[in-house]
Design goal:
2 helices, alpha+beta
Length: 102
């Protein structure tokens, strides 16, 4: 992948309009492993382009979107609120457990 024309509105560390080019490559290393390698060319921030790589292992089982951790805590309370509205007892409360934010 060869990416150019980055927006100055990017909020990621090191990202922005100075990045001239980002070249990425996916390489299969084995049946369950893919290597992602990329090179960043940003002459304003760095004197030379730099390269990073990470190996990604196949996920077994369901995949879930990675979002903010606040959502992980909020979902319990969202479901608890829905149960309270429909009169269904909350198993955690019945068991006497103290959960996030309660």
């Amino acid at each position: 992948m060869d990416t150019t024309l980055f927006s100055d509105r990017l909020q990621q560390v090191g990202a922005g309009p100075n990045i001239r080019r980002l070249v990425g490559r996916f390489t299969r290393e084995s049946d369950d492993l893919i290597r992602y390698e990329y090179t960043v060319d940003d002459p304003v921030r760095w004197t030379v382009p730099w390269t990073a790589a990470i190996s990604l292992r196949e996920t077994v089982g369901p995949m879930f979107e990675v979002t903010c951790h606040e959502g992980n805590y909020a979902i319990e309370n969202i479901l608890r609120g829905a149960r309270a509205q429909d009169g269904t007892p909350d198993a955690a409360v019945v068991a006497g457990l103290h959960l996030h934010g309660l």
